[in-house]
Write a structure and sequence with these properties.
- It is a single chain.
- The chain has 155 residues and is an alpha+beta fold.
- It is built from 3 helices and 8 strands.
- The strands form 2 sheets. The protein has a 5-stranded antiparallel β-sheet with strand order 7-6-5-4-8.
- Helix 1 packs across helix 2.
Length: 155
């Protein structure tokens, strides 16, 4: 029976040749193996097909009756690995905090498992009556937020 670790080793060997990185491997009870990859420049279907063929050649009989599915992590899906944060530096993201609060802002920095977004908040300046929007940097740990995802902009 094939293990997730065996698949991961083979996937990482194929990924070493380019700019792609592994996002997730899921092995379902329904005899399906789903592999998600990503890249800063986007994922091409030809590369997904190439990785699938590579795994079929390398693992062959070990895959047995499993259905192999290779695809991209998908735009608009929550980030799962640190590299996805790095790929979206400077982009608008949505963060759902541990307490369920939704924030949107520009992904400003990523350091290890910590990231910073710049949000706009209304604040009343001293001596003024009307609030103005100001940029506020907020720092989060990847492990402490429910999700972070890239916001598609249709302009």
């Amino acid at each position: 029976m094939i293990t997730k670790e065996t698949i991961k080793t083979q996937v990482e060997e194929w990924l070493a040749k380019g700019d792609y990185f592994l996002v997730d491997i899921q092995m379902g009870d329904d005899d399906r193996i789903a592999i998600e990859i990503d890249c800063a420049d986007g994922v091409w279907i030809e590369d997904c097909a190439e990785l699938s063929r590579f795994l079929q050649e390398r693992l062959g009989d070990e895959l047995g009756d499993y259905e192999l599915e290779v695809g991209s992590a998908g735009l608009g899906q929550p980030f799962k690995v640190e590299q996805q944060y790095n790929c979206h530096l400077g982009d608008e993201v949505e963060v759902i905090t541990a307490d369920g609060k939704k924030l949107t802002g520009i992904l400003k920095a990523v350091e290890g498992r910590t990231f910073t977004i710049t949000t706009q908040e209304k604040q009343v300046p001293e001596g003024k009556k009307r609030p103005v929007k100001v940029d506020v940097d907020r720092q989060f740990s990847m492990d402490e937020v429910k999700s972070t995802r890239y916001l598609l902009a249709f302009k």
